[in-house]
Amino acid sequence: MAVTGNATTGGRGPLAGVRVVELAGIGPGPFAAMLLADLGADVVRVDRPGGGGLAVNPAYDVTNRNKRSVLVDLKADGGPARVLDLVERADILIEGFRPGVAERLGVGPADCHARNPRLVYGRMTGWGQEGPLAHTAGHDIAYIAVTGALGMIGAPDGPPAVPANLVGDYAGGSLYLVIGVLAALQHARTGGVGQVVDAAIVDGTAHLTAMIHGMMAAGGWQDRRGANLLDGGCPFYGTYATSDGGYMAVGPLEQQFYDTFVELLGIRDEAPARKDLARWGELRETVAARFKTRTRAEWTAVFEGTDACVAPVLSLREAPEHPHLAARGTFTDFGGIVQPAPAPRFSATPAAVTAGPALPGAHTESVAADWDVPGLLNDAPEQAPEQAPEKVSEKASANVEKDG
């Protein structure tokens, strides 16, 4: 039977004992809170009555695993007070409203720090708290577009390739928010004073391009797609189709790895010199033609376990079955949902998935008791029962509230 939650989450991992309040949102905020929960923090997600997320069955929303949920209407009388009662006992708060919305709702930084001066107040937005676009709507694709990151990705003769929402929402957003709130938590614990962490996706994504900017300044990177060492411009750093329609990823940048690559590929005697940039087109054609002679599985067998730096390009469903990932337990099946296991790994305080996606409002009673906030039970909205995914209706709310 699938498991979707229990009375107490947290307690395992290096963040055991850290309390986090997450004001429900979509995208990078929930993922950041999931990461904190994976690492052992007791994360309480404050959901709004009636939903407010994407049209995903909440029983399958893995970004809400290892958390607990209470329902609070921040626009109702007493709603902000309930959140502030949680804040008083928390170490970190995460919110993802547009700038000024949390303040208007009565749960902004000043309101929260008046109750808990040591609180780390994490703000997750795309454009940041100030600037000409701060109050405008946006999504991952727009944020990575203006930073130059999107423009680097894709073939030179085609449009930029959209990397799902991994580069902006999660790499430039969630991970920087987590780094920021943990750094601020360390400061609060040593100095006794909390602060506000402004995590903007545009800032984090721009920061991710630091090495590229250095290379460009040194003349080692052209400011266009498909013309550089790491963007597919190099014939020995890219992907090649196989005879069955699959793809192999190739990346033997160092000479010794490249020597192994051309030997195993069977083109050592016919491949143009790799340092002859004028013949890179010819080299690419030679490599491509050779890969087309066998299937992806056959080439995988040829390169497996070698230093040629070649790997099969797998789909999301195939990835958990890869022998290396399976051996490491990179993916786990919890409650009938195959999902990535917590990362990174810790030798003394291992993290684990201990509870499935928290259904909205399912943990009001346990949070009220564990956090000593009995007010959560006073006129609390009807809470959802803890259910297994297969017992939850496939219908989910598609109403994304436009606060601000």
Q: Can you tag this structure with a few keywords?
A:
disordered N terminus; 404 residues; three-stranded antiparallel β-sheet
Report on the architecture of this protein.
By secondary structure, this protein is an alpha/beta fold. The chain is built from 13 helices and eleven strands. Strand 7 and strand 8 form a beta hairpin.
Summarize the structure.
With 404 residues, the chain is α/β, with parallel strands linked by helices. 31% of the residues lie in helices and 13% in strands.
| SSE string | EHEEHEHHEHHEHHEEHHHEHEEH
What is the 3D shape? Answer: elongated
Percent in helix? 25-40%
- Determine the structural class based on helices, strands and strand pairing: alpha/beta
Total helical segments: 13
Secondary structure layout plus pairing:
Blueprint: E1 19-23, H1 28-38, E2 42-47, E3 67-71, H2 79-87, E4 92-95, H3 101-105, H4 109-115, E5 120-125, H5 140-146, H6 166-191, E6 195-200, H7 201-208, H8 210-217, E7 238-241, E8 247-250, H9 255-265, H10 280-291, H11 296-303, E9 310-312, H12 323-328, E10 331-334, E11 337-340, H13 364-370
Helix pairs in contact: 1-6, 5-6, 5-7, 6-7
